[in-house]
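Milestone M4 deliverable, item 7.
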Amino acid sequence: MTAFLALATSLLWGLADFGGGLLTRRTPALTVVVVSQTIATAVLGVIVVTTGAWSEAGPLLWFAVAAGLAGPVAMICFYKALALGPMGVVSPLATLGVTVPIGVGLFLGERPGLVQVAGIAVAVAGVVLAGGPQLRGAPVQRRAILLTLIAALGFGAVFALIAEASTTVTGLFLALFVQRVTNVAVGGAALYVSVKRGAQALPPDGFPWATMPALAFVGLADVAANGTYAIAAQHGPVTVAAVLASLYPVVTALAARGFLSERLRAIQAAGAGLALMGTVLLAAG
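Output delivered:
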């Protein structure tokens, strides 16, 4: 069950990233984040009310608030790092965030077997390679590296925090709602500051209403991924759940290959193969 839910997480996050990447070609990234997360917040609000999840309110929700703060900060740093480039370095480095939940799992006493350790090593290497790391070419700015490492830390923190934010399914609905409210507040503030500094919040031709279904998909897929990961981490080894959930760059690369006919670089194809091999080892262990 842990492996299945964690792989579902990687599928959902990978498709959400693919959709978000397409949307940001026409609409500013911060606007995509804020609008998609607002839609997800509204849907979660309805679920919380209809399920009576408010009764699950308690101190654990502070983990959800922390995850809601870390997520937008990580995303903003990641987008700034991508702007500084090269993307072939930034994208693979950001996947190092998986070391945070793995470290938490080990600190809490998890001890994966030798087969699982091998699977973790192979899968992480595959994820990094699937991002298509740039091995030569333009120099990398120190600021880009620093921003990417901050983003990786933030992404990893969200992994670890959301897994601790609830102990029941209804509690998880409330935790995800609180996380998304915080996401929208932080993202909205960042968007406001960005606009005040002269940046554009919308494309020249106005808000792209035709993209609302895609924005809704990105927001809801991201929420669903957080939910499946939280359940996976609660019902199995965090070390395994985190690694399998971190396979989303492979999904994004394959989606680009399938829908946009983008050709995978040899190093990306090798990374996808290693990621698959690592998944098999983790499942076998």
